[in-house]
Known about the structure:
Strand content of chain B: under 5%
CATH superfamily of the largest domain in chain A: P-loop containing nucleotide triphosphate hydrolases
Largest sheet of chain A: 6 strands, mixed
Number of domains of chain B: 2
Radius of gyration of chain A: 19 Å
Distance between the termini of chain B: 48 Å
CATH architecture of the largest domain in chain A: 3-Layer(aba) Sandwich
Strand content of chain A: 15-25%
CATH topology of the largest domain in chain B: ABC transporter involved in vitamin B12 uptake, BtuC
Number of helices of chain B: 16
CATH architecture of the largest domain in chain B: Orthogonal Bundle
Oligomer: heterodimer
Structural class of chain B: mainly alpha
Helix content of chain B: 55-70%
Distance between the termini of chain A: 22 Å
Shape of chain B: globular
Shape of chain A: globular
Largest interface: A-B, 62 and 47 residues
Order of helices and strands of chain B: HHHHHHHHHEEHHHHHHH
Number of domains of chain A: 2
Helix content of chain A: 25-40%
Number of strands of chain A: 10
Strand order of the largest sheet of chain A: 6-7-8-3-9-10
Structural class of chain A: alpha/beta
Amino acid sequence: MTTTPTATATPVLEGRGLTKRFGHVTAIEDSNFELLPGEILAVIGDNGAGKSSLIKCLCGAYTPDEGEILLDGEPVQFRSPIDARALGIETVYQNLAVSPGRDIAQNMYLGRERRKPGVMGSLFRVLDKAYMRDHARQQLSDLGLLTIQDITQAVETLSGGQRQGVAVARAAAFATRVVIMDEPTAALGVKESRRVLELIKDVRDRGLPIILISHNMPHVFEVADRIHIHRLGRRVAVVSPESHTMSDTVAIMTGAMVVSPEEGGTP
Amino acid sequence: MVSDEKTTDDRAERRPTDQLAAAEGIAGSAVGDVASFEQSQSPLDRLQRFLHSRPLVSPSVVLLLAFLFFSIAGDRFFTATNTSTILAQVMIIGTLGIAQTLVILTGGIDLSVGAITLFASVVMGKLAVGWGWNPWLALLFGIGIGLACGAANGLLVTRLKLPPFIATLGTLSVFGALAQWFSENQTLRSTDVQEQASNLLWFGRVWEPLSGFRVTYGVVFMLLLYAFFTFALSRTTWGEHVYATGDEPETARLVGINTSRVLLSVYVVAGLLAGLAGWLWIGRIGAVSPIPIVNANLESITAVVIGGTSLFGGRGLVLGTLIGALIVGVFDSGLSVLGFEPLWRVFAIGVLVLVAVALDQWIRRVGK
């Protein structure tokens, strides 16, 4: 239980009573969420449980119909992922993390390209390529990813794990508050998954809290400090990997087991 | 209820590394290996990677070999006169090729560039010669028509969400018909154009740096356009966003690129370039004619494809298109110097297109 952060800290990112409906379908209803400083919080749930909708509300892709989102205790409203990003929340998307034909440095700075100083940059929008290459290289080496030799090689020439590494490095480079990762290991082999999990822990150890959405229980149990379990559109429990086993967790997720508040259940 | 009967059996399960190893069937010792993402490479892999990172290599090699072959095989090929003729013939397709490259880089296609060129050229001619407008104003208006046609294409693609192929197939007919209507199917003779609007013929003027090697102003202008767009695509945020939009539109949107605005800008610039090509076209034929520019659309696409730009978007260089257009020009001229009928030139270009697309498919599979 030692790694569980104290419950008294102000959550970095908090959702209160979040509800999102699509026509007659309610994706999430009166759902709460808390991410504490410096933790890896795994979000798990069966298909259709609403974890995806919850995360999309938190990263700005959806606007919740009801409820509020607080960032460091302050209420915020996101109209798009760009809004969330401006406030320091970076998301690594499952299949769309990188632009395959662009090189590593270009991917790191995609959508927020650094321009040359002066009139060349402001009026003619000329890129500062040297700056972007140097900083991209720096960022990758900080995360121990410099097995990638050439910063100007297209991302599609990299292996799946290296690509995910670039996406994680980008998120870590620009996030100031939260990193959200949607199934970062889903498409990877065993070894590459391990490497990406190590990376996730590295990022956490540098002080950034992480929301990890994953279907892979062993991965969740390896890296998560706490596990948020979503079921039928709401949070049913937050458990710690030390206090609960994988089979408990799956049982809670599928409704085979009900959790008391003392055990992390959320009424 | 979570029970307290969790026994010590479960404790073993709580050690994460063991859980992972057990669940995935790997040994604990594998942990040490994972720090590197190693790749093994065969010579073929290396060639694939080389061509992937240097997209100009294969078209350059083809151009060089074709040039050498025809120079050796036909003694009338490598002469100053013939080389200038090839450049002059490449001028229109080369310019439209830039427009086509931009659109293809976004994953689209523009079938209407030839029709816009024709429309712009007849507007320039008719306003200046037929209606007696100030020839420079007529010229600007014609280029503006090109820009407006491009904007129409762009709005069809971004607002009505029509597939670019269909949108520009439609506007190909519309702009072509408008050109016929506006020109009233009349050709403006060279002498009339020369008298009333000699500026429209400006790109047909000749600069002769070496005896017999005659470069038209239009060719020089086309080369300047290539330099400009090479810079714009590789060195500005606009270029970066054009590539990103064609590469993976959804990713581009998620990182905050306004892909609709990028697409619209590309079609507008393509229209502008086609408008400028209208001016070049008048200089090339020395008159203003409502006769459609034969194969302008398809040949511009051919130049782009042979030049190594991927039809799937996001990969390619305008300089490749220049090489592609020159390849077409060299085959054209070379085969005719060797006495082949024109049909064999069509045949050869067709084979080149197929080889180029097959090569692109292979190169794109790099890393898979």
